[in-house]
Amino acid sequence: MAEPQDRQLISLADYERAAARALDPEALGYFAGGAADEITMRDNESSWARLAIRPRVLVGVEERHPGVTLLGQPRPHPLIVAPMAFQRLAHPEGEIAIARAAAATGTIMTLATLGTTSVPALAQAQPDATRWFQLYVFSDRGVTRELVAEAVENGYEALVITVDLPVVGRRERELRAPPRAQPHAVWSALAPDGPMTPMEFARLVDPSLTWDDIAQFAAAQPLPVIVKGILTAEDAIRAAQHGARGIVVSNHGGRQLDTVLPGAEALAPIVDAVGDSLEVIADGGIRRGTDVLKALALGARAVMIGRPVLWGLCVDGADGARGVLEILLQELDLALALAGAPTPAALDRSFVARAPWVGQQA
Ligand SMILES: Cc1cc2nc3c(=O)[nH]c(=O)nc-3n(C[C@H](O)[C@H](O)[C@H](O)COP(=O)(O)O)c2cc1C
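Above: query sequence and flavin mononucleotide SMILES. Below: predicted holo structure tokens.
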């Protein structure tokens, strides 16, 4: 494990480098990798840099607050930990450490179906964390129903149904060095012979899922449904029509279909199409407070943070994950101050423009 006291960890990129030194090749390939040529994965990060901020001055930014409203609840800021499978590959405490970091920073934690901590175990370990549950709908609908019932019973506050993985993307780093783990959330129901790879688990996902299933999930249980993995206005409108309360504009961190749109490009047309009928969350490649500000300016209510939280977890457990979230929050506060928008509500699309340096960067 890396020793944080020996290193200067002042940006998310510092955590990424420290984690890359500490992780074994299987775990690093699984966490860091994307689909095929990883064009979308890289573009997720550079797409935020293609937007320039149009700052305003002399608006009085002494009092600032990053608070937002999400699913009708006030939240202290717009950060959410994205659902990510197999977290114990990064640290023995896995999801529990990330939930502790989330609770300490007022961040929502999304537990993945393929989490290495069970739905009730996370709730018992971190009752104070606001928890959402990410659902992969398995062909075995009995297992799926049980997971949803557990999430409801254990105080999870939203059901994030991931729809961009009817089949798993071609992740070449994983093909070369497959990691293995025991996702506890589904372990008891499936009882496989031994630890499985993410690709083996992904084969359990039902590729026949359609919008009618989303409507059924929205009607059959009490949690608000958030559909994760939307990239077009057409699908965003369908999500609203089928009972979703929100969507995550996401390409799964570039891990599914390579060369699809990054969130920074997909977001504005979707926000325009859905208006107030849906709450829009963005993810993918958010590494700086300025990236968060740009997503909010384009109309997202909140953002999910993926890999950087795993880097923090790997480097220093719960403290490392908290360090990552705190850096992003400090950077967001700075960005709001220097852009002249003391709250997210003050942001609108006039705060961003296509950057003049587009086409001049590699
Ligand atoms: C290691 C890893 C595992 C992931 N597992 C899941 C998952 O089980 N379910 C899901 O909906 N998304 C999963 N994702 C996608 C994230 O929720 C999120 O969309 C993406 O990581 C955001 O991009 P970023 O990592 O660039 O911040 C995973 C991402 C990573 C990096």
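The CA atoms of residues 61 and 342 lie 5 Å apart.
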